[in-house]
TrEMBL record:
Keywords in alphabetical order: FAD, Flavoprotein, Signal
Keyword Transmembrane helix part of the UniProt annotation: no
Cleavable signal peptide: 1-24
Organism the protein comes from: Dendrothele bispora (strain CBS 962.96)
Entry annotation: catalytic residues: H536 (proton donor), H580 (proton acceptor)
Name under which the protein is recorded: Aryl-alcohol-oxidase from pleurotus Eryingii
InterPro entries found in the cross-reference section: FAD/NAD-bd_sf (IPR036188), GMC_OxRdtase (IPR012132), GMC_OxRdtase_N (IPR000172), GMC_OxRtase_C (IPR007867)
Length: 634
């Protein structure tokens, strides 16, 4: 199975060449650490981790260490060039090479789950689409956690802190193509497609003329995430904007920040227990399976930002999780939290293909010709122009299922501003399923996804060896609802491209069995054969109300029943957003950074109070004091 686009072999070699990091503040071995004690240790320099690092080090008195398992993002062409995001192969240095266990909903196939293994994490390797979630997503989170701070009104300033809209590479007039109020003044660059494709006008005109379930929505970042529109992406000046480029790089010259790459955290250590509550202060680091762990200390907090797979894996390895499961593996249980690794949710995705007219311009030739590939790359390198300034898709749409779908089933979407399915348009043959690009002809790829799935899975350990991948079971398409929704999405996409005048001079016909299927039975069988995921795993360290017995973290993202340990990444999502999820990760991180600062300020105030009252001889622990005041004040 190929999960990524094919690019010509010679060009692949070219992409493997990368420049050495130009940052002196980057350490590439724990031996280079000048000290072992920090106020905060952030595990994972990914999407969320880089935001936290940047925000916490704004205060020059706060000492922060970021530990990242992967390599530096600097000088990697397939990271920088938006279009080449699709060439990032599982098994390369910048990916974790994860594979699921046999998927019951996919005829027991396994599929790969790419995850960034590089600074910026998956924001350095993703396909760049920017959605902040419908207002309902945030209000639903607020309802689930019983905490107003997650409602859209309370969250909006944090979303606006993450990003700003910038001109697309081709500098075309974008008036009317987006809603300026949906973007803020933060470090990430967001832009509309910077190179038009033949599909764009066909998709948007079709949506505008049909309306109804396929209505046009000017900007899907304005709160209503139902409808068809241009895609906004994390691209500026034709280059990827990631949490590494936008957040971490500008912070790297701060003397209070150390960033350690090529290094894995393999265990979090609670060095003491206060009134039954383990206090986490230690992080054990290694570079390879044979290394003797080196321990660093976080005197204030460990912030776990390992992502939806890395975070539960590290919690479980550290004895935080379902007690019986851990005992069976020979891991000493430290904190019994049954939901660690549970509630894994992802969006299933299936491609369909259509052959289009020979005079159409698609990216098919480019994938077949090293010459053309080189020319296009040269155009990107010299002028930051051409096809490579785009993510592989310029337009898409989100749809709600017809009312009949909800006769016997409550709608799993967050609310009326959220969709159930998604259709993405690719201007060429994208070999994401089992089919490979034909030697001749031009094609388009239509990707359909279920964005409000009811299937659930889990992350569990297969062994206590931190270098063995955990068992990843996203449970793709294991409910009838999800399969019915996918079938409906495939049919909706077909109807979309067949019932309007905008496609008549374009289509030659369906390509492959799924696009040609005539009955739902056939479609179901083919979807099980072809589907993958859209790489949006969430939920494995879900937040829940403060007192709730379920969930892993409280609404301030602190691990329940522990002190000194917080989780900030996609694993804390209590419900999967009905869209692409990176903007929500950034926003969660901005929100969490302020929560961490607030708690840190509080601790500092207690410290000052302690000094004032000169009661040091009792040598009581500040963390206990902090906890006491906190509980008394809520
Ligand atoms: C191929 C792909 C395409 C995607 N496309 C899109 C898209 O177009 N739009 C969108 O919105 N979303 C997309 N996503 C999803 C989105 O990018 C992720 O959900 C998001 O970036 C996750 O952020 P995170 O902080 O939770 O984890 P990550 O960004 O993955 O960060 C986790 C970091 O922790 C590090 N780490 C993990 N364990 C350890 C450890 N034990 N020690 C040290 N370091 C560790 C990892 O190396 C990584 O850098 C895509 C994802 C992928 C993989
Ligand atoms: C990636 O994983 C596959 C199987 O899951 C394995 O065969 C392959 O060797 C791995 N590649 C790398 C580079 O680790
Ligand atoms: C998938 O595996 C399960 C358990 O091994 C088995 O019962 C089932 O028949 C298999 N399904 C298919 C379609 O092969
Ligand atoms: C949140 O809860 C309120 C009160 O029960 C309800 O009216 C509202 O529809 C809910 N909103 C979402 C998005 O879940
Ligand atoms: C862009 O287009 C809008 C309306 O389509 C127009 O009002 C505006 O003047 C244009 N801007 C520029 C700089 O041409
Ligand atoms: C879409 O509509 C616009 C504006 O009406 C028009 O200029 C353009 O040619 C149309 N595109 C297609 C592919 O029909
Ligand atoms: C645990 O570590 C913290 C932070 O370094 C330290 O303040 C505390 O004294 C340690 N506790 C024990 C029992 O060693
Ligand atoms: C592509 O470009 C690279 C580097 O610029 C060059 O070495 C290679 O020969 C080129 N390949 C082709 C087919 O032009
Ligand atoms: C709803 O459930 C009833 C009873 O099980 C069944 O007869 C009916 O076909 C179902 N309707 C739909 C639309 O699934
Ligand atoms: C889990 O462990 C078993 C026994 O060591 C091994 O055979 C199997 O391949 C592992 N599974 C995965 C998915 O790594
Ligand atoms: C492409 O060919 C079709 C017929 O196959 C024709 O209708 C259409 O006008 C042509 N388009 C262009 C841009 O030449
Ligand atoms: C923390 O304290 C600093 C300095 O006293 C202050 O500037 C900042 O606003 C405070 N942050 C929060 C989130 O309370």
């Amino acid at each position: 199975m190929k999960s990524t686009f094919q690019i010509p072999f010679t060009s692949k070699l070219l992409l493997l060449l990368f420049a050495k990091s130009s940052f002196s503040a980057l350490l590439s071995s724990p031996r280079e650490l000048a000290k072992s004690k920090y106020d905060f240790v952030i595990v994972g320099g990914g999407t969320a981790g880089s935001v936290i690092a940047s925000r916490l080090t704004e205060d020059s008195s706060v000492k922060v260490l970021v530990v990242e398992a992967g390599i530096s993002h600097v000088g990697l062409l397939n990271v920088e060039v938006p279009f080449l995001s699709t060439s990032i192969q599982p098994g390369t240095a910048i990916d974790w090479n994860y594979t699921t266990v046999a998927q019951a909903g996919l005829d027991n196939r396994t599929v790969s789950i790419p995850r960034g293994h590089v600074l910026g994490g998956s924001s350095s390797t993703n396909v760049l689409v920017w959605n902040r979630g419908s207002n309902d997503v945030w209000d639903h989170w607020s309802n689930i956690t019983k905490d107003e701070r997650w409602s859209w009104n309370a969250i909006e300033p944090y979303y606006l802190k993450t990003n700003h809209m910038t001109t697309p590479a081709d500098k075309h007039n974008t008036t009317g193509q987006f809603d300026p109020s949906a973007y803020g003044s933060g470090p990430l660059d967001i832009s509309l497609p910077g190179y038009p494709t033949e599909l764009d006008g066909r998709v948007l005109n079709t949506s505008k003329s049909l309306g109804g379930r396929v209505k046009y929505t000017q900007d899907l970042n304005s709160g209503d995430l139902v409808g068809f529109s241009y895609i906004q992406s994390t691209i500026g000046n034709g280059e990827r904007s990631s949490s590494a480029t936008a957040y971490l790089e500008p912070a790297l010259d701060r003397s209070n920040l150390d960033v350690l790459i090529n290094t894995r955290a393999i265990r979090l250590v609670a060095n003491e227990t206060q009134a039954g509550t383990p206090v986490f202060t230690g992080v054990e680091l290694v570079q390879g399976p044979q290394d003797t762990p080196i321990r660093v200390t976080a005197s204030n907090e460990i912030v776990l930002c390992g992502g939806s797979i890395g975070t539960p894996q590290l919690l479980l390895l550290s004895g935080v999780g379902p007690k019986e499961e851990l005992t069976t593996l020979g891991i000493d249980p430290v904190l019994d939290i049954p939901d660690v690794g549970k509630n894994l949710i992802d969006h299933p995705l299936v491609p369909t293909y259509y052959q289009v007219a020979d005079n159409a311009t698609t990216f098919d030739d480019l994938l077949r010709s090293a010459d053309l590939f080189n020319q296009t790359l040269a155009q990107w390198q010299n002028d930051k122009q051409g096809l490579f300034v785009n993510s592989p898709s310029n337009t898409y749409g989100f749809l709600q299922l017809p009312d009949e779908a909800f006769v016997n089933q409550t709608n799993p979407a967050a609310g009326p501003l959220s969709a159930n399915t998604e259709i993405l348009f690719g201007d060429g043959f994208a070999p994401l399923g089992t089919l490979t690009q034909p030697l001749m002809g031009r094609f388009i790829t239509i990707l359909t996804a279920v964005v409000s799935p009811t299937s659930r899975g889990s992350i569990t350990l297969n062994s206590s060896d931190p270098f063995e991948q955990p068992l990843i079971n996203p449970g793709i398409l294991t409910t009838e609802f999800d399969m019915n929704a996918m079938v409906q999405a495939v049919k909706d996409s077909q109807q979309f491209i067949h019932t309007s005048p905008y496609w008549d001079d374009f289509f030659l016909g369906p390509y492959g069995d799924l696009a040609s299927a005539e009955t739902d039975e056939e479609r179901i069988e083919l979807i099980r054969k072809e589907a993958v995921t859209i790489y949006h795993p969430v939920g494995t360290a879900s937040m829940s109300p403060k007192e709730a017995k379920w969930g892993v973290t409280d609404p301030e993202l602190r691990v329940k029943g522990a002190r000194g340990l917080r989780v900030v990444d996609a694993s804390i999502f209590p419900h999967i957003p009905e869209c692409h999820i990176q903007a929500l990760v950034y926003t969660v991180a901005e929100r969490a950074a302020d929560m961490i600062k607030e708690a840190y300020n509080y601790t500092k105030r207690c410290e000052a109070r302690k000094e004032d009252s000169e009661s040091a001889k009792f040598s009581y622990d500040l963390r206990a004091l902090d906890s006491h005041f906190r509980d008394a004040s809520t």
